[in-house]
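Hi U.,

Before I forget, here's the chain from the pilot set. I'm dumping it here mostly so it's searchable later in email.
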Amino acid sequence: MEFKDRIRLLRREAGWTQRETAEKIGVTYRTYQNYEAGASMPSGTVLAKLAALFGVRMDMLTEDVGHATPDAVENPELSALLSEMQALFSGGKLHDEDKKYVIDALTEAFWRSKEINKKYGRKKNDHV
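Structure:
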């Protein structure tokens, strides 16, 4: 099952319209329609919002997607980290803009760490 089919199924199971779902994740109605049509893929931030909204892990939404996906999906370590962060986002204590800043900061920190570790030949369990 493709990403577009998964989100359509989850949305219908929740009893929401496309417009309601778009509002819940902070995108336009047309943008959400494009996700379900398979015309575009959401950013990592929106993907995290969708996963939190539907109460699933990000990889459950994106597994076996046959075209370009966000960096978090391509790297299992980052995907796992962002999935764990969804619990924080589900509580509704952060504003959407703040959530985006957290995800962007984590993504940037993750990739910088990977570059530094590669530069110095460090392995996953090596400590400084």
